[in-house]
Amino acid sequence: MGDHVSKLRQEAKQLQKTLQELIEQQPNDQRLRDHIEGLTRSDVFPGLTWFWGPMLYERNRVLFRPLILNHFSDWMIEPNFRWARVRWTDYADELEAWLASARKHRDTTMVRKLMQWRYAPASGWRINTVLLKRDMIQAYREAPTAAARAIVLDENDLWFQFDEDSAIELYGIDHASSAMILKHLPVSFWGSEKRKRWLKLEQAARDAQDKDFANELYRKMVPVKEWQQDALRLTGSVRDAEELNEALEQIHPTGYGLDLVSGMVQLLEARGRDVMPYVRANLNSAIGGWFGSRGTPLIKLAAQRGWWDLWATAIRLDRNPSTFNKAVSDLLADNGLAEEQRLDRLRALAGASREWNWAGFGMVRVHGLEDKLAAQMYERYPGLIHGPYKAHVTPSWWGGYPLLLEAAQQANDEELIDLMASRYVTRASYSYIYGHKQQDKLMETADKLGDYYQAIRDRDPAAFAQRASEVLTRVPAFSIYDYHRLLKTNKLARLMFVRSFESYLEVPGAVCDLIEGSDIHVQMLAYRVLEQDNEKARALAAEQLDILLGTLLRPIHRKTRLPAFDALANAARHDAASAKRVLERARLALRLPDQKYPKEQLIGLIGRVLHAYPGLRLAAERPVVYGLEEAAEVVA
Hints:
- By secondary structure, this protein is an all-alpha fold.
- Helices cover 64% and strands 3% of the residues.
């Protein structure tokens, strides 16, 4: 271990010496950066940020800033592979000058990193909030203009929390600091037991006629029990329903893990449907989430009062799927209900539970029906399974619907069978990793579906092609994660993706549908069908040439593009007109700057077409045989 300690210290000393020589002797900044990039592989390099950071930033801030940010560290590696913080005070002169330079250039990101280092304790990950708040308030007070004060707040926007006294002091200097205060309030992530109002700051905001800030402070810090009392007082003092809902919205608590359902129940008991707009607007945040099932009291009250719209919404939003399944089961078993009422309530229960939406990506959660319950509903109300409950009977990674599928097969319901097959055909077995029994059951059902569709193929290939295209065109995009494992473990997938090429050609329309499928593996299947060496495939590929030509220029995966090349070559062999169109587009694709584009295979496609139709060759594409008269003409 002593040798390791000595080696580590020697490495740090040698690296520091090397960096010093490079910075002093290399006049070209770009070459200096290239040399330093090679040194960043050393484990001790980040721990020397105090040494190389100020020098590189001062030398060429624009060029070296990305390197500095990528390797910035106020920790250094020590013997026994432990980490120790580099103390700011040990190198205060260099680091303070660096901080001043970053402030001068309004480099907020760098300033925050340095501030985090400046106020770091000797150990641990937090910062010294007492010193940070003291210095920030002092700088805020001394700032000469509103713009300067905004810069102070921006640079000190680190991970810390205000206390009420410091927040009052900052707010007293300039009310524009309210946004900063709200951003750094004490936060409890696991409930509301630690919430406590800052009454002094609230009163200061109201005295300053800053109503929005005061209300936001209340919403973020009020304990749930106190909010319940305040909300109930509003129900007694505000008689107009519209004004009441607006007043309740102004005091609605915000935060994590707040149990607001009890308060909503009290409001509904006090004023009934008068407060329904407020309750419905905030129901999504009050029920479900990561804090267990909380909708039961609200569901019971809604059922007692006959508020079936609220009842259905609360059941859907409740994160516990057993609540949803119990409600459906109770409706099916309730013989005292009229059929029209039963159907209305069943339809009201169907739909998404909650949504998460981001830029370019979204997710929807839907409660799944239990298999036995789904089979019961199908026997009694098949229209519901085909309609609003279609999303509730989709096989998932952790459960399938063998009973429902059996009922559909007995009823010869091809529509439902094809829909369920479109989900089973994407399920690969991972039981060897998870050891989950449901995985084995899913694969058993997929194998049975494979036998079902194989019997159709053996009896009538055209009927199989039509049914298989119905299945595969319903496969959602990006639903196949491991294509090779899928083919290895799923009998239905093997049948439809790799063992029925000739059958698809029996129905040209089925292949056309596959070309326009949502999932890329479905499209690749169509290309492989069209690349078969027979006249049917060539004629069909020529008919679909408008779509196939798009694969040359649009961005698709390499593994998908190669079968598309083969399908295009097959289309070109059908007639000279098709070959000419393929050549024109292929020559354009050859000019694409994409380095990952399979240009060698593209040249192979051009070569195959020219071999079949030599008359389409350009002058530069004709072979030159020296010694012949034609060669002299070409060379000239």
